[in-house]
Protein 1
Amino acid sequence: MAAVPHLTPDEFRRLGRQVVDWVADYMERVEDLPVLAQVKPGEVRAGLPAHPPTEGEPFSAVMADLDEIVMPGITHWQSPNFFAFFAGNTSGPSVLGDLVASGLGTQGMLWATSPAATELETLVLDWLAEMLGLPEAFLSTSTGGGVVQDTASSSTLCAVLAGRERALGHSGNEAGIGDRLVAYTSAHAHSSVEKAVRIAGIGSARLRHVDVDAGYAMVPEALDAAIRADVAAGLVPAFVNATVGTTSSLAMDPVRPIGEICREHGVWYHVDAAWAGSAAVCPEFRHLQDGLELADSYVVNPHKWLLVGLHFSAFFVADRAEYLRTLSLLPEYLRNEASASGAVIDYRDWHVALGRRFRALKAWFVIRHYGVAGLQAMIREHVRLGRLLAAWIEEHPSFELVAPVPLNLVCFRHVDGDAASEAVVERVNATGRAYLTHTKLDGRYVIRVNVGQAHTEERHVGRLWDLLTAG
Ligand code: PLP
């Protein structure tokens, strides 16, 4: 029988060093690479063998293909010239923490299947809650607690499911009202809210898009009116989503008045702060989510703006006992003494997936490396640079701002209209020297610049400005 060609520890050590060097070289040169991948659809796949090798290949052949065929198809999210969407930052400590997690290869579905994975996760989430000034109830030492999910989309899905169960009286729809549930958000909420409402069986038609004000933030009175109209019509409000920092324009739904309405009607209140929530590491930005103590659940993505690489979405609930009634099930094959004792957390009960990698490790590496002060310094600099760009735009005769700039997302357009704005985005992206994206507000094309990449400095924003104004 042929031997299985595992890497020996010594081979792994040698190749591992090569790969760490490769990543370090990448960090050095990423700034000079064209930010947006320049390949055509199908080009990467066509460059690689269509069928898997029968016999294993030398590692050097894999690395050669990585350099020659895969890398041209990479869009460089870690480039300081990346201004598109919201940034997706990683960092040296995160990569190293993730390497350790991969090497350990634990599966932490239960406390018993790797106690340290669970306990470190609980600790890191309590640290995060403290760093962000979240309400006491979101701490594991209080009535609630957090869990690491892959994405904000998954976190919001869990919130919708919990809201549905509350509205059904945790009775598995015995009352037969499952087809009368309604959910509410603003039209500017992320599409993950509608996706979650569909998956939960409430359906897109029962997702109310509440009116927004001139700054694209939800109008609480309109929410109240919508809920009252639905109740009067015999429908059952089940879920409200407020967004702290909408994806299109970073609009801030007013968390407190929306929360008061949810309390009055007993509706599950979820706050999606996927991007902007990270700003709360700086006390001066916490007012943007004042009223969080009224929320049942909250999501923030350290994998966007706190230097923890994908996937790391932090989801918090205020009342874990109620939350777990939605997702906790105990098949015989998972029974164990520690779980039965009630003294431990089994995170498999906190989300859809059963299996879970040791994601807390990379966040722990990041927080210990940077310290709270290091993360605050980055956020403050991004906000300063975003506002600087906004000031330049305000003074330029060809551009106008189209939304408030509460943090570091700048939305603007060309005064000559949509075609001119679109031409600016296309021209800048075609240079390969920066990458930005667009959105639509009030039906009009809007240029969108997010100054949020970990290594973006004033000189990068200055170069972007030169590109924007070069036409
Ligand atoms: N919510 C908001 C406000 C977002 O901006 C985004 C993505 O940008 C998401 C949710 C979805 O995040 P994820 O990719 O973690 O699902």
Note: The pocket of pyridoxal-5'-phosphate is lined by residues 86, 151-153, 190, 192, 243, 247, 272, 274-275, 301, 313 (CB under 6 Å).
Protein 2
Amino acid sequence: MKITYLGHSSLSIETKDKTLLIDPFISGNELAKHIDINKLQADYILITHAHQDHILDVEAIAKRTGAKIISNYEIVVHFEAKGIKGHPMNHGGKWNFDFGTVHYTNAIHSSSFPDGSYGGQPGGFVIETGNHRLFIAGDTALSYDMKLIPEVIGELDLAILPVGDNFTMGIDEAIKASTFLNCNKVLGYHFDTFEYVKINHKEAFNKFSKAKKELILLQIGENLKL
Ligand code: NI
Ligand code: MN
């Protein structure tokens, strides 16, 4: 499995034969100018919630690639009205896709479309594919519910957590989340894109290593293999 960081909360996950795109917000990200959305592959686009910084490039990429959306019911309905196919889910549910199993998990956040219309409840995903299981938290606060993930779904290989603070949890809470999730390997996202979410990288790495945990912060375009 190859995970490429596309900036902010955007990721491309290549499994054995499918490509999943997560929360594509690329063309509006000053820091991701070197990523061309017209060259991105996608069989599925997973969307955690309806905020602009998670859906900006969904329509363009889905229409070009024919990718199917996986998200909450309201977001899927919103994109179906634009002629894009989707698979609706809601919290606590799981579904077996051709690349693996997806669970839609709880998040503490909000979820309105840029025009203010209702975007359902925000969520995150646990993706199980091949021998790997990873958690993509979405925009969320630290939550005690995270303890349920390893207990009910199973042990994680990687936790992808927001670390930018202000709109989501920050570094200190991400360390606690990693403990709740029973997963010491954390890929941080949702940081540095805007003034509100800028973080001190050195301090973040120091805090994680003091807690005997691994924090990975990828450059935009850089990848991680599991
Ligand atoms: Ni958000
Ligand atoms: Mn966000």
Note: The mean pLDDT is 98.
